[in-house]
Amino acid sequence: QVQLVESGGNLVQPGGSLRLSCAASRSINSDYIMGWYRQAPGKQRELVANIFSGRINYGDSMKGRCTISIDNAKNTVYLQMNSLEPEDTAVYYCRAYRILGSNQYWGQGTQVTVSA
Questions:
Q1: CA dihedral angle for residue 70, residue 88, residue 104, residue 99, rounded to 10 degrees
Q2: Upper half-sphere CA count for residue 54 (Cβ side, 13 Å)
Q3: Which of 5, 28, 101, 109 could be cross-linked to 32 through a Cys-Cys bond (beta carbons 3.0 to 4.6 Å apart)?
Q4: Helix ranges, 5-102 (H)
Q5: How many Å apart are CA 49 and CA 38, to the nearest integer?
Q6: Helices in the chain by DSSP H: which ranges?
Q7: Contact 50, 27 (CB under 8 A)
Q8: Pairwise CA distance, residues 115 & 86, whole Å
Q9: Which helix (H) or strand (E) holds 52?
Q10: pLDDT for 28-60, tens place per residue?
Q11: Cα(113)–Cα(93) distance, rounded to whole angstroms?
């Protein structure tokens, strides 16, 4: 099992940027698909981006406006978000998907609010 702690969420104005961090309690370099998801009020949780062994997939919601990266030495996954818009307002969650056993683990989320 892996524990995940997100940070970096904040209130930003439209057009602003944020860098989210997801710190994992153990090594996540080979056994886990790491990803960022978001959930806005009244909406389903959706994929923002995930990464595994250097392969990156982006969801449609923020493609072109975000970059996912991982620092294996620090067991930390990052999400750089740019050109934020009010519709990006959501709780952003980090997920670790363990391939062996097909288990998934979620962080508690970090709030991102884009508003003037």
A1: -50
A2: 0
A3: 28
A4: none
A5: 10
A6: none
A7: no
A8: 6
A9: strand 46-52
A10: 878 999 999 999 999 999 999 999 988 999 999
A11: 14
Q: Where are the beta strands (DSSP E) in 2-115?
A: 4-7, 11-12, 18-24, 32-39, 46-52, 55-58, 66-71, 76-81, 90-98, 103-106, 110-114
Residue 49 neighbours by CB distance under 10 Å: 22
Sign of CA dihedral 83, 22, 46, 64: positive
Residues 72-116 have pLDDT tens digits of: 899 999 999 999 999 999 999 999 999 998 999 999 999 999 999
Contact 61, 48 (CB under 8 A): yes
Report residue 30 as tokens. 């080979």
Output the six-digit token pair for 101.
Answer: 């056993």
Q: Name the DSSP letter for residue 103.
A: E
Give the span between the Cα atoms of 110 and 9, in whole angstroms: 5
